TrEMBL record:
PANTHER family: TPR DOMAIN PROTEIN (AFU_ORTHOLOGUE AFUA_5G12710). It comes from the Eukaryota. The lineage of its organism: Eukaryota, Fungi, Dikarya, Basidiomycota, Agaricomycotina. SUPFAM superfamilies: SET domain (SSF82199), TPR-like (SSF48452). Pfam families: SET. It comes from Lentinus brumalis. This is SET domain-containing protein. InterPro entries: Gramillin-biosynth_MTr, SET_dom, SET_dom_sf, TPR-like_helical_dom_sf. Residues 403-597 form the SET domain.
Amino acid sequence: MDPAMLAAFMARMNLAPDQLLSMQGALSSGSRGLTVRRPPPSFQHDMSAEELTEFLEQYKQWFEEDRTIPAEPAPLFDRSLLISEQHRRRAEVERTLSQHGVGAGVLTFTTFVGLAKHSSQTPVQDLRPARFADMLVRQVHVGHYLLCRIIAPCSRMVAIQTMIEDVDGVAYDLSIYNFPSTSDCTLEHLDALFPVGRILALREPTFKAPMQGDRPLVRVDSPTDISFAVAGSPLLDGVVWQTGAMLPRSPTTMDAWKQRGNNYFKASHWFLAAFAYSQGLSLQPDAAVLLLNRAEAYLRLMYYSGALCDAQRVLSIEGIPDAHAGKALFRLAKAHYGRAEYAAAQKSFVRWKNTHAGDPAADPWIERCRARERERSSGEYDWPSLYCTARRNIRLDIAEYTGPVEVRTMSNRGGGRGVVATKELRAGDVLMVTKPFVSVYESDLPKDKMIISLDLISKTMKDRTGAVSLERIIDKIYGNPDLRDKVFHLYAGPDYMSPPSAYPPVSRDPVSVEPLNPKVDIDIAQLEAICTYNNFEPYRLETHGSGNDKATGLYPLASLFNHSCSPNAFWYCIGDVMIIRATGLIPAGTEITISYCGGLESYEDRQTALKKHMVEHCTCSLCEQDRHDGEDRLRKRHQLQEERVLPAVFSAVSLAEARTIEKDVRETYGRTRGPIRPLLAIALHAVAEKLRATGRPRQLREALQKDMEAFRCFGFEVLGQGGTQDSTGLPIGTAHLPAQASSNLRGLGDMMLRVAATYVELGEEANAVQWIKAALWLTKTCVGDGKELFLILHEAAMKQVNIYDYVDRLLR
């Protein structure tokens, strides 16, 4: 910038000579711009798995190389031009959204997780103010906060993008990620949160070099690094904006903020309502009506900690009207319930009922509290009801249960944690019933927008639900600060300190939620790592085989179980609730393991799945046997599983061709290998179905032989060709369940029922009854007691082979 242009620019910004001197470093760099960086590698949506891994390796190398470029002053830009550019960007987004109607395709965005990001842990009042003149590009400004003002309307791609200026009138871009309520919001929603004139204090800001062009930007990854400086804030004491006053069109009285909040509430904009009530409370902190209204908004947001604190504040105010006290008490009770504090919730609901004679509003809540307390203490649930409810509503209202297990430090795992049995356990014993901290299903996602999340930790592409789950975890901690340790005490990988040996963490008192000045610190980089190491892909029993609702869930307690492909416990989900049960005898003091993958996958696919959980080398018996088979056999088996051992293939081929596939699969297992051969089991059952379809007695008996061998290959103890039973009267051993049961519970029961149907067709009713009872035992042991649930689970399979009415009569 030449001297004449510089002088004109400084005059437009009303900067005095002493301020010019303080900015000399930045100004002197303006003529040459930022250091030219090597462009990052380019991502293509159609990359193969190998190409994606290579790309992510290259991208991480590029990122680390870029971090070695020294920090430097930022070039200056004309404020008015930046504002014009942001208006143009906003108009482009508006035009894109207006044209993106039904049938217009899916908007796709790409983001990365696993890169270094800074999140502040220091309260804003303990930081020193900084201006852009003090800041360097490619630097985190630890120990400082940037007081800035929004000077142009927001736009939105993955991040919220806008333009800010500091007190000197120096302007740059601002990108905000992960802010609550904004993941799929309208531009009008952003305008309400971040209007022109809004003043922000950004804790320890990162001043980043641009990916393209020469304009650096301030990037905020954690919403807890943003404080909103409203009228009366100490952050504004003595502050004079060089470009003059610029006030957002905002209310100036408590009543006006209440009305704005009420309008948002009526429109179901819960966060905006709470945000408006918070600004009213900044003017009158003990306004009972605003606290009551905000508590209700927090309940809708599931910010139970914030709702509880607001309700308690109302009840602590002397002389409040009875109507206010009643509302506060009811909202207090609902907040306790949301926090799983069922005894406290019941007590508050009873208190409310005692002061509202004849009003039944609390009655169903009191009954729910009692039901939750019974579930928590006994581990007994109404499984048929839960199963039927989960078909309609994924998220179930139940209490969590922890059985005879505890978390311990495992010396055989290098001091890491694991879960052990505290008493002897047997097949089917319930070890844990647990709800997710957050779960996201495909059905939760917008249909017209897709975010591709590339994970530089695991070197994989996350499912669509994975990117959204991170946002929802952030939102839940933001609104429930006391739950932070429940997530941040999970393992985050070798780059972070080892978590405490004890888990779960000691419960904390509720913490108030103040959107203007958050009371919790959320480290985004650590949280991304925690999600990479701990997220599950919930397998829902009620959608068995549909494969159309991929999901991501963070189950903190379940993530403490270590992995084995041949575990001594299995898990599945009904709705979003995870149930973990023992596969067989587990002596007290024994470590309990679960499988992070299904167990029926090929060795290669299991290793790919485990890579997402950062399990590099599984030493379980199944993997050891697979490796002992040799690479050639493993490669051939994987190819068969990918190309030939498929329902569509078996339905299309002849019996002879099906036998050939079975023979080819059999040859991929070594002669000395143990009985567990999952892919052979699948092929054997497919051949049995082909034989069964002939309807001829000889082929039906061969089908039974094939299925018996299939059961043994799955891991069952088959006690005879059908007629021989043990003391239970069943044709299978009941001491243990197959390790792969969790991914095929309904399928195994269906197989037993098809065996029973075959015996019916052969006129051997006694054997048919025994296999029906075997299927009933399997359901009872794995899912829960009750003939009703058994009939629901296997209705389709029984009707397909025409034995539903027969079984129904038998079980009456």
